[in-house]
Amino acid sequence: GQCATICPVGAIVEKNEIYPVWQALEDEDKHVIVQTAPSIQATIGESFGMKPGLVVTGKLVAALRKLGFDRVFSTEFTADLTIMEEGHEFLQRLEGDNNLPHITSCCPGWVKFAEHNYSDLLDHLSSAKSPQQMFSALSKTYYADLAGIDPESIYTVSVMPCTAKKFEKERENINAGSYKNTDAVLTTRELSLMIKEIGIDFTSLEDEEYDELLGKATGAGTIFGTTGGVTEAAVRMVKEKLTGQTLERLDLGFRGIQEAEVKIGDRDLKLAIVSGLQEASQIMDEVRKGESEYDFIEVMACPHGCVGGGGQPLLADEEKKDARGEGLGSIDEHKYIRKSHENPMIKKVYEEFLEEPLSNKAHRILHAEFKDRPKT
Ligand code: SF4
Fold it and tell me: Which of 69, 115, 130, 159 is 20–30 Å from 136 (CA)?
């Protein structure tokens, strides 16, 4: 099929990538791995008539194995890694160079909008790539080495909430090493079509678990899929690092709100959580005029964050998006480890490969450069 999905930014209309993914799955020489964005587990059920917000992680994994993927991983792992990299950048700004506010960059729809409209403020954006790109970069380096697989034969697919991720994988200078890092991006709707195409009865699938290597994640990684989640995950990490104290209360209540103040040591940090490009423009205009007091600004291009993304099941009203966000929150609440820096797999990937947050190697693999683009 050639149905197009439309990016919330309005600038990106792309044809679907179902066909190349089928081709890769049929190619015996390819090792095809898939990553699923945090939000998908709370949205894909709707494509099969299930209740909005119902968490169907186990069925999602089972369906992907039935489709023939060799490894099924969760992007939540690199959401944790994003927090490590971006959180340390924020720490550096707080402790030294003071180029505040620090603005998030994990939403490629927002990054592209900023490149077009706020290129004078790009140095406030974290240079961390989105979790999707971090995952793909590690797949063809760290994972390839560990698994003993030639990166050339690895084909990486990501299941994402929007077409902005399709744009992101084609950006210049986005690839670590000489291989294309993300080969194909499927939206939630495209994946649903594939599942239907081969007649999998999604609702009756037995739950399965993600593959482990690059699969384990914390609750902090999960809530990336909803507005306020990135801020909450970052504060959990930054607060412990700055004060040396263990954070007992984890539900900081940032999800679903627009601003907050949080005391870290002797500082009161002002945080803003923005979803939707109109809100983003308002706050960026204030930053430009020097009228903004915020230290940290989380921006998601879609209202409600990725649970409201343009590639999610259609006809999502406010109520459905809220239910999806709550579904993700409930996964976080039930996770044993809820802070990114306590994820044992994150510690391992730094020990074995990346050295430490913001090391030269981490920069080469996990960070990107943004650029000035013509005004929209
Ligand atoms: Fe995509 Fe999420 Fe950004 Fe929307 S908020 S453009 S779904 S990354």
Answer: 115
